[in-house]
Write a structure and sequence with these properties.
49% helix; 12% strand; Extracellular solute-binding protein; globular; six-stranded mixed sheet
């Protein structure tokens, strides 16, 4: 009888799909009130396993390459299992370049991981396709600020939990800058940053650490000025460019932004063929060893930097500031976001999955995360033992100059992909800013024309 019920549930689920019911989609008005047969079946099975004490294994797929974060996930899964002996969490790493596509493929094959490290901003299409489980607001304790929670929403509903207050900016080596005659305060404007790079280069040192064999590291160079600069002043920029209501030429500062980004990359980071093949881990090590004076990277890199510094016996002092794109300091902000977890709508154990998510929002879990990663927990009031010397400086930036760009509507799908791809290819091909901007416009027009 149990097998018959399961078969009936599966058949009903397929009938609902063919009838046009996009269960779990953010755009479906019935999604939150009427569960699908497959969801009901999963929840029933989950309740059975919880009640019986049957061992359950949850899978967590992530793209965090930093060793501190990998170690943190293992420590968190072990601590959670110690508190919930019948629930284990297996952690799997996958490169970001393949991440979203692999998740979609697994979901289509009914083999999706229970958890994925994504944000609504990065992958709204997965939510719209019904691949992500909607979460209850009671998962978020009062200790998590609204500025961190807001980017966890899509269409006014909750789909992710935050792990940390994260973001990316400019690391700098105080000793190397001093040798080049540069005061760190000069990095507060784009002209000051470019001038600092030239002075470091003239002093016979490498200005910027390179990790651009991985596309995401280079993407940040252009995304920072757009996401935390232009889009702060025009939150609808992405929507308007994708819809055709605005053109790239409506943002005249883009040409200067692209020129400056290419100058940073071509003249001050990619200084020889060897560094052109650097991965992100090589970039962290290059800076940590003292082989480059600055590095544009995220706060998540801090533990890997310290590991490389210690291994090299480097005693230099480091600092951190925002990545300036304008000569008006009041327009420059720390591009803030955060690592977050989404729960797959295809999870076979939704109750156990929610239990893990609730655990991840505790101060205890926040402390484990922060101590291993060196980052600031999304849960306020978390105190860590022996914080990194850069942490007070980072905390001050988050308090005074952070802009959580993921609260805005994002470039999506092929639009987002082409924005980054054309920028990188333009750098490789030696193109000008005008050529790149023209290609962006042509690509967006073409995507819109075919209904992308």
């Amino acid at each position: 009888m149990k097998h018959v019920a399961k078969i009936a549930a599966i058949l009903l689920a397929f009938l609902m799909i063919f009838a046009g019911c996009s269960t779990g989609s953010a755009g479906s008005s019935d999604a939150s009130s009427t569960p699908s047969a497959s969801t009901a079946s999963s929840e029933a099975e989950s309740e059975d396993s919880s009640a019986s004490g049957e061992e359950v294994t949850l899978s967590f797929m992530h793209h965090m390459g930093e060793q501190g974060k990998k170690d943190a996930l293992v420590a968190l899964s072990e601590d959670f299992t110690a508190k919930n002996p019948n629930i284990k969490v297996e952690v799997e790493f996958l490169s970001y370049d393949d991440f979203i596509n692999v998740f979609k493929q697994r979901a289509a094959a009914d083999n999706a991981p229970d958890f994925v490290q994504l944000t609504p901003y990065q992958s709204p299409e997965t939510i719209d396709a019904g691949l992500i489980l909607e979460l209850d607001s009671d998962l978020y304790p009062a200790e998590v600020g609204q500025d961190v929670i807001e980017p966890m929403k899509h269409g006014g509903k909750y789909y992710a939990i935050p792990l940390s207050r994260s973001g990316y900016g400019m690391y700098y080596n105080k000793n190397m800058l001093e040798k080049a005659g540069v005061d760190p305060s000069a990095l507060s404007t784009i002209s000051g940053l470019l001038d600092a790079c030239q002075k470091v280069k003239d002093a016979g040192m490498v200005p910027l650490a390179s990790g651009y064999a991985e596309s995401w590291t280079e993407n940040m160079i252009i995304e920072g000025p757009i996401f935390a600069g232009l889009m702060k002043e025009d939150p609808n920029m992405a929507v308007d460019l994708m819809s055709g209501d605005k053109k790239f030429s409506d943002y005249p500062e883009l040409a200067t932004i692209v020129d400056n980004c290419y100058k940073l990359l071509r003249d001050y980071a990619l200084v020889n063929e060897e560094v052109a093949s650097n991965q992100a881990s090589d970039q962290y090590a290059q800076f940590g060893r003292g082989d480059a004076a600055m590095m544009m990277q995220g706060v998540w890199a801090i533990t890997d930097i310290r590991t490389a510094q210690e291994a090299a016996g480097n005693t230099d002092e480091f600092g951190f500031t925002y990545y300036a794109w304008s000569d008006d300091e009041s327009r420059n902000y720390l591009a803030a976001n955060g690592d977050s977890i989404m729960c797959s709508a295809g999870t076979k154990h939704p109750e156990e999955a929610k239990k893990f998510l609730k655990y991840m929002m505790t101060k205890e879990a926040g402390k484990i995360w922060s101590e291993y990663t060196g980052t600031i927990s999304a849960v306020s009031g978390v105190e860590v033992d022996n914080p990194d010397p850069m942490m007070p400086q980072m905390q001050k930036l988050f308090d005074e100059k952070a802009y959580y760009f993921e609260q805005n509507s994002a470039f999506t799908g092929q639009y987002y992909s082409d924005l980054d791809k054309i920028f990188i290819q333009g750098r490789v091909d030696g193109k000008t800013s005008d050529e790149v901007i023209a290609e962006w416009q042509e690509a967006f027009d073409n995507i819109r024309a075919i209904g992308g």
